[in-house]
Amino acid sequence: MHISLSDYLLDIVQNSFEAGASHVELTVDEGERMISCTVADDGKGMDEATQRRALDPFYSEDGKHRGRRVGLGLPFLQQAVDAAGGVFALESEVGVGTTVRFSFDRKHIDTPPLGDLALTLSTLIAHPKAQHLLVTRSRAGSGSYTLDRIELLDVLGEFETSGSLNLLRHYVASQETDLHAGNEE
Amino acid sequence: MAKMTLEELRNLRNRVQGDLQKRDIEGKDSRIIIGMGTCGIAAGAKETLDSFIAALDEQGLTNVSVTQTGCMGLCYVEPTVEVIVPDMPNVIYGRVDKQTAKRIVEEHVVAHRLVTDHIFDRPAADIIKKDGGK
């Protein structure tokens, strides 16, 4: 199990990149009562049998790790949602893409803390297989911000050297800090 | 911290690039590869990644490549990090928490001295290529 919701997100958005998605939309909404997240990609998708197996911790996609029989990303998330009485939904179609939605009741004692979301978002933007990643982050009563990987790539040039990554992390952290300060633009 | 605009980010970027052109490039061709599989994430790999970037910034190194990869097969000593520095052996470090990441930058990357108490391996046998991944 992961410690924070941010870690679950980091884990499952990587699935989209590895499924060959060219477009991934991530939304994180902190409502009054619920924290809701959606990860929608246009990757290769899964048929119904594969969707069921993706939730089995002892299944991993062929070829990802030769000889291994463990795949914990989605099963961990589903287990955490179940433990906290939240909602989890997986929709997928071969050749179209996959959407994972989940939400947690903020008041439930077993709901994991949100964790360092800014760090998760900058890590995802810098993922070597990421292409077009669009993030919409909102928080009840304090507004929202969006991050567009293509736009940031245009500004920074690349996400591989320590200099660019340092600027990226400061930029994303400033968006998140501003959201918590409640300053709507 | 005030909310940064894309324009401010662009200006900062241009300034950093200007600095780069001015001086001889230390850290060039050095690479840090961080295992960011489920095992790595659970053990705190994103904080490790952040610590590397902060420590490199402290040393004024803007051109070290820092990338993410999946599980390297050493799940029992996550977070794991491969460090490739010219004229140094390629090393897989394990149990790299924030403090160790800082040490790796100061000792391995800058001072060219191995952080021997965290060395684990080259990648596990089912990951490496026949040539040893070289």
- Report strand order across the widest sheet of chain B: 2-1-3-4-5
Beta-strand fraction estimate of chain A = 15-25%
Distance between the termini of chain A: 37 Å
The CATH topology of chain B comes to Glutaredoxin
Radius of gyration of chain A: 16 Å
State the shape of chain B: globular
Outline the low-pLDDT stretches of chain B: none
**Any guess at the CATH architecture of chain B?**
3-Layer(aba) Sandwich
- Helix-and-strand structural type of chain A: alpha+beta
- Helix fraction of chain A by DSSP (H/I, runs of at least 4): 25-40%
- Tell me the helix content of chain B: 25-40%
Largest sheet of chain A: 6 strands, mixed
What letter string, H or E per element, gives the SSE order of chain B?
Answer: HEHHEEEHE
* Contiguous uncertain segments of 5+ residues of chain A: none
Q: Tally the structural domains of chain B.
A: 1
Question: Which chain pair shows the most residues in contact?
Answer: A-B, 47 and 39 residues
Number of domains of chain A: 1
Please summarize the sheet with the most strands of chain B.
5 strands, mixed
Task: State the CATH topology of chain A.
Answer: Heat Shock Protein 90
CATH class of chain B: Alpha Beta
Quick take:
The complex is a heterodimer of chains A (185) and B (134). With 185 residues, chain A is an alpha+beta fold.
Describe the structure.
The complex is a heterodimer of chains A (185) and B (134). With 185 residues, chain A is α+β, with helices and mostly antiparallel strands. Chain A has helices at 5-18, 48-54, 73-83, 117-125, 149-156, 162-181, and strands at residues 23-30, 34-41, 87-93, 97-105, 132-139, 143-148. Chain A is built from six helices and six strands. Chain A has a six-stranded mixed sheet. In chain A, strand 3 and strand 4 (97-105) form a beta hairpin. In chain A, helix 1 runs parallel beside helix 4 (117-125) and helix 4 runs antiparallel to helix 6 (162-181). Chain B is of the alpha+beta class and 134 residues long. Chain B has one domain (26-121): 3-Layer(aba) Sandwich (Glutaredoxin), CATH 3.40.30.10. In chain B, 37% of the residues lie in helices and 15% in strands. Chain B is built from four helices and five strands. Chain B has a five-stranded mixed sheet with strand order 2-1-3-4-5. In chain B, a hairpin with a 6-residue loop joins strand 3 (81-84) and strand 4 (91-93). Chain B starts with 5 loop residues before the first helix and ends in a 13-residue tail after the last strand. Classes of the chains: A alpha+beta (185), B alpha+beta (134). Chain A binds chain B through residues 1-3, 6-7, 10-11, 14, 64-68, 72-73, 76, 116, 119-120, 123, 126-128, 145, 151-152, 155-157, 160-167, 169-171, 173-175, 177-178, 183, 185, and chain B through 1-4, 6, 9-10, 12-13, 16, 20, 27, 36, 38, 41-42, 46-47, 49-50, 52-54, 56-57, 61-71, 73, 126-127.
